[in-house]
Amino acid sequence: MSITLPTAIATLHRPGLLVRSARAGLEWYRRDSHLRRLLGPGRPPAIGAALAPLMAAEEMLEQERRSGHIGYSAVRHVSLLIAILAEAQMMRVEALVEGEAR
After folding, report:
1. How far is CA 73 from CA 56, 65, 81, 92, in A?
2. Which of 41, 23, 33 is nearest to 86 (CA)?
3. What are the sequence ranges of the domains in the chain?
4. CA-CA distance, 43 to 49, in Å (whole number)?
5. Cα torsion at 59, 61, 65, 70 (round to 10°)?
6. Quick check: 57 and 38 in contact, CB under 8 A?
């Protein structure tokens, strides 16, 4: 049984300060510039397609955070969480719009 991305997002358990910081940063999310910075240059993927690489990168940072790795960046971690929350929100809106169009 595979885990879907919405399920994976719903089961993310991160420290409250990281989550609150990410939620506070949602209003400043700018998809093009954020995804270029987090995923690399080029055209940002379609809505929904960015979630898997964002979540993989976030999981790596979470492992660094837990292990106390010297290269861990809380700023990058919050940026990834902002992008994950924003992309998930856009997926939900897109699904609602598609549902209304039917």
Report:
1. 15, 8, 12, 29
2. 23
3. 5-101
4. 12
5. 150
6. yes
The DSSP annotation for 21-59 comes to HHHHHGGG--HHHHHHHHH-SSPPPPTTTTHHHHHHHHH
Please compute, for residue 61, the number of CA atoms within 13 A of its CA located in the half-sphere on the CB side. Answer: 20
Residue 56, exposed/middle/buried by CB under 10 A (0-12, 13-18, 19+)? exposed
- Nearest to 57, CA basis, from 26, 87, 96, 95: 87
Residue pLDDT tens, the chain, 102 long: 344 556 666 667 899 999 999 999 999 999 999 999 999 998 999 988 999 999 999 999 999 999 999 999 999 999 999 999 999 999 888 888 877 666
